[in-house]
Structure formats: structure tokens, C-alpha cells
């Protein structure tokens, strides 16, 4: 790995901005009143303020602020580029963490805290790169946009989703760079690296299942129509359901890049054996991610029911996080639920909470070529591996408007692919400072090179 192009002063700015954003505790628990992204927006306003930067803020709900900054390009016909990072984080309890998740401590060359990899590391490094470009008087060929957006962690309805429905022009862009890429995997030696770039994401099809029973006295449970017991069976059936495997071209490239060989590789590329092959992997984090990449998944995550210990409940509500593979929509989701629940399906009320199909971007673009060139500055002869993220990002809103979106970034070999995914929404989330340096340099490189590549 080479680091000749990295500016230590800018890396220091990224580290300190990241730590301040973590400490602001912009925790999004899914309710409209949570998030308080205004704290990070005010921090970013103060950080970006100065010559060459124009920015505005929007607040669809009190405290749910987003910021858009722009450096106007020389050529209005040139493609525009957006660096998009969200400012909210998911909840974290100090229980189970080795360090306070909101103290932003530095230990052993790593910044610890909620949001360190999802995705305040990128949001802060983008801000540092954007400010540096503005203060040095650079004028890119096309518009450069910095979008610090609220509410990504709860589906974007008060953030990117709100903009696409109400005021899209301020964030409009031809190319978008955001989260969930940049980890090196499958080395063939110190000089050969394969680096992930997310070009697709699974669909989101959250469903609310309502199970009904008959109320009664808890002292007489024999033969009772107890909604909790029925809900338990619904959950059991969902947990045991095995949908078919869907193996895409992106999946094939990912298996190749991860260096699987022999019978294991053959099984991973076989729809009839991939489930068992994944189940036999030694690393649990890798198995979880690879399973999600190849199957529509069902995770019952919230259950509400009952009102009193001595009263048999007549209603239980289950919220199920369903993530669909490419090509599936609401019709396929209903069929999955029918298959999973069997004879119980017609007794359960199913309501859609969210329906966003899987989206994807092309790799035949000047941005892909630019990312390849820049990655090779740090990892000579590196190969970019197009991957699919199993979670949702705000890229889907941009793709629906025709933009090409990539989950990018650049991480050091210390941030292993096998461990990286487990830090999202997990305990002991952290990012190493070398990765912050590489990513900050990547954004600067995009501005230096993209428009030359696009015009060649």
C-alpha cells in the first residue's frame, strides 16, 4: 500500500471532525422526533463556512436538518458529482462495548464510536475534502455537491426521500459517491488487492403482520385463542423459511474475489448448494453477509402485544424486516409470506410499511474508471469488485432519478472485509486513522481526475 499522496494535516482534520460528529449523538431510533441531525449540520456549517463555499440547509421537521453545499463548475454541460454522507446514527447502548460509544476515543490508531463506519467517517472526510477544494480556489469542470443528509437510518423519509419528492434540484447530480464500499479483500500477495465498490443494493419490503385472538382471563388458558401463542408460531415459521437462492453476476465476481477454491467455490456458485456452503463457513460475519447477498431475508425485529399479565391478548403486531433480491417486488414478497406461513397466512393481516425495489448502477462509466485509477494509487494493480450491499442506502433515491451511484471509500488492510460488516449497527464500532487518510485522499483524487476521464 502506498500513501505518498496523503496529506497528514487533512487527515487530522478528518479525525477531529469525525470525533465531534460522534459526540453530537445524532441518534435516529426511527421516530420522527429523534435524530437531532441539526447538531451535526450546525457543526458542518461552522466547519465549511468560508470563501468559495455556498450552502443551504433544509428542515422538513424540527431538528431534522440536512445541508447541501456546492462549488459551481466551469462548464454547465459537464456532469455533476455529489459526495453524499448521512449525519444520523443508530442507537447504541454502552453495555457490551469496550468503550463509550459516544466518547469518540482514539485507541491503538482507531477512532471508536457509533457512526465510525456507518457513516460519519465518510461524511467527515467528504467535508474535509470539499472545504480544501473550495479554500484552494479549485473550480471543477462540473458542479461538485456536498450533501450531508438526515434520516438515512430510518429510510430517508425526512432526508433524501423528502428531497426527491419535494425539492430535488438542490441535490440533483449525475454521479453520487456514498457508503458501503472500499474494503480490500482476497489478496494475491502484498501488491495485488481486490477492493469492493457497491453498485447495487437489495430491496426493502418491510411488513407489519397483525395476529388476532380472543381476549379472556389469564387464569383460564386452556383452549384459549391467545394471540401471543399464534404470533410465536408465525415467527417460528418465518425463522425456518428457506427461500430459493438468487445468484447474480455480481455474486460470481464476489466469490472469485474472496479467493474461495475447490469444492467450496463450486458450491457457492450452485443455487442448489449455496445455502449449505454458506452455513459451513467458519467466520459468522462472512456467512451472514453472503447469505443475505443470495437470498431474500426475513427478520422479525419488533413485536408488540398484550396489555396486562392476567389478560389473554387479542392482538399482537410483528414488524418484519424483509430485504429482497434483485427482480423481486411486492407480488413475490406476498408469495414468500404465503410459502412461509402456510395455512396461517389467511389468518394474518399483512400491511406494507415500505416498498423499495433493488437498484443497481453500471460499471461502464467514467466514474468507475476514475475509482479504479485512484484505488491503484494506494493498491498498485488493484481490481475493483462490484458488490451488492444487503442494507439500504440513500442511493436508491438517486438511482430512481437516473443517477449512477457507487458505495465507495478506501480502507486500509487493517479494516478487514470479514470484520467490516459486523461493525455496522454492532458493538465496538471503530475505524482506523489510516483508512480515514486514504478515503479523504480518494475524494480529492476524484475531483482532480474525474472530469478529465469523463472528457477523454
Structure report:
Helices cover 35% and strands 21% of the residues. By secondary structure, the protein is of the alpha+beta class. It has 2 domains: 8-200 and 358-455, Zn peptidases (Aminopeptidase); 203-352, Alpha-Beta Plaits (2-Layer Sandwich), CATH 3.30.70.360. A 6-stranded mixed sheet has the order 1-2-6-3-7-19. Strands 10, 11, 13, 15 and 16 form a 5-stranded antiparallel sheet that branches. Strands 8, 9, 17 and 18 form a 4-stranded mixed sheet that branches. The mean pLDDT is 94.
Structure keywords:
20 strands, 456 residues, 14 helices, globular, 2 domains, Aminopeptidase, Alpha-Beta Plaits, alpha+beta
Summarize the topology.
Elements: H1 8-23, H2 38-48, E1 54-58, E2 66-71, E3 81-86, E4 106-107, E5 110-112, H3 120-135, E6 144-149, H4 160-166, E7 175-178, E8 184-185, E9 194-201, E10 203-204, E11 207-212, E12 216-217, H5 227-240, H6 249-257, H7 262-268, H8 274-279, H9 284-294, E13 297-305, E14 311-312, E15 315-324, H10 330-341, E16 348-352, E17 359-360, H11 366-378, E18 383-389, H12 395-400, E19 404-407, H13 417-423, E20 430-432, H14 433-455
Parallel strand pairs: 3-6, 3-7, 7-19, 9-18
Antiparallel strand pairs: 1-2, 2-6, 4-5, 5-20, 8-9, 9-17, 10-15, 11-15, 11-16, 12-14, 13-15
Helix pairs in contact: 1-3, 1-14, 3-14, 11-14
Amino acid at each position: 500500500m502506498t500513501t505518498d499522496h496523503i496529506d497528514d494535516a487533512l487527515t487530522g482534520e478528518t479525525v477531529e471532525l469525525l470525533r465531534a460528529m460522534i459526540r453530537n449523538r445524532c441518534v435516529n431510533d426511527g421516530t420522527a422526533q429523534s435524530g437531532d441531525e441539526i447538531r451535526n449540520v450546525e457543526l458542518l456549517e461552522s466547519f465549511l463556512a468560508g470563501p468559495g463555499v455556498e450552502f443551504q440547509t433544509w428542515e422538513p421537521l424540527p431538528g431534522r436538518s440536512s445541508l447541501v453545499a456546492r462549488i459551481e463548475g466551469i462548464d454547465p454541460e459537464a456532469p455533476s458529482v455529489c459526495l453524499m454522507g448521512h449525519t444520523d446514527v443508530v442507537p447504541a447502548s454502552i453495555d457490551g462495548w469496550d468503550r463509550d460509544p459516544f466518547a469518540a476515543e482514539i485507541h491503538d490508531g482507531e477512532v471508536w464510536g457509533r457512526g465510525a463506519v456507518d457513516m460519519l467517517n465518510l461524511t467527515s472526510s467528504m467535508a474535509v475534502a470539499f472545504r480544501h477544494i473550495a479554500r484552494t480556489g479549485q473550480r471543477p469542470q462540473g458542479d461538485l455537491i456536498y450533501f450531508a443528509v438526515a434520516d438515512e437510518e430510518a429510510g430517508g423519509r425526512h432526508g433524501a426521500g423528502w428531497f426527491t419528492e419535494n425539492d430535488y434540484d438542490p441535490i440533483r447530480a449525475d454521479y453520487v459517491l456514498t457508503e458501503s464500499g472500499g474494503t480490500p479483500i482476497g489478496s494475491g500477495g502484498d501488491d495485488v488487492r481486490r477492493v469492493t465498490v457497491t453498485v447495487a443494493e437489495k430491496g426493502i419490503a418491510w411488513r407489519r403482520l397483525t395476529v388476532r385472538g380472543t381476549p379472556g382471563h389469564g387464569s383460564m388458558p386452556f383452549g384459549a385463542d391467545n394471540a401471543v401463542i399464534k404470533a410465536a408460531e408465525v415467527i417460528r415459521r418465518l425463522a425456518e423459511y428457506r427461500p430459493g437462492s438468487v445468484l447474480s453476476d455480481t455474486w460470481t465476481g464476489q466469490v472469485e474475489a474472496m479467493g474461495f477454491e475447490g469444492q467450496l467455490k463450486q458450491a457457492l456458485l450452485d443455487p442448489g448448494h449455496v445455502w449449505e456452503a454458506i452455513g459451513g463457513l467458519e467466520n459468522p460475519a462472512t456467512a451472514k453477509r453472503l447469505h443475505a447477498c443470495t437470498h431474500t431475508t426475513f427478520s422479525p425485529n419488533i413485536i408488540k402485544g398484550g396489555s396486562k399479565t392476567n389478560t389473554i391478548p387479542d392482538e399482537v403486531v410483528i414488524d418484519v424486516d424483509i430485504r429482497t433480491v434483485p427482480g423481486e417486488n411486492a407480488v413475490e414478497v406476498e408469495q414468500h409470506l404465503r410459502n412461509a406461513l402456510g395455512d396461517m397466512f389467511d389468518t394474518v393481516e399483512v400491511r406494507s410499511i415500505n416498498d423499495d425495489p433493488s437498484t443497481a448502477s453500471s460499471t461502464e462509466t467514467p466514474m468507475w474508471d476514475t475509482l479504479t485509477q485512484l484505488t491503484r494509487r494506494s493498491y498498485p494493480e488493484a481490481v475493483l469488485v462490484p458488490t451488492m450491499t444487503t442494507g439500504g442506502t440513500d442511493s436508491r433515491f438517486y438511482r430512481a432519478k437516473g443517477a449512477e451511484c457507487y458505495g465507495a471509500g478506501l480502507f486500509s488492510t487493517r479494516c478487514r472485509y470479514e470484520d467490516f460488516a459486523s461493525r455496522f449497527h454492532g458493538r465496538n464500532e471503530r475505524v482506523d486513522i489510516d483508512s480515514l487518510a486514504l478515503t479523504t485522499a480518494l475524494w480529492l483524487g476524484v475531483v482532480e481526475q474525474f472530469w478529465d476521464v469523463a472528457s477523454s
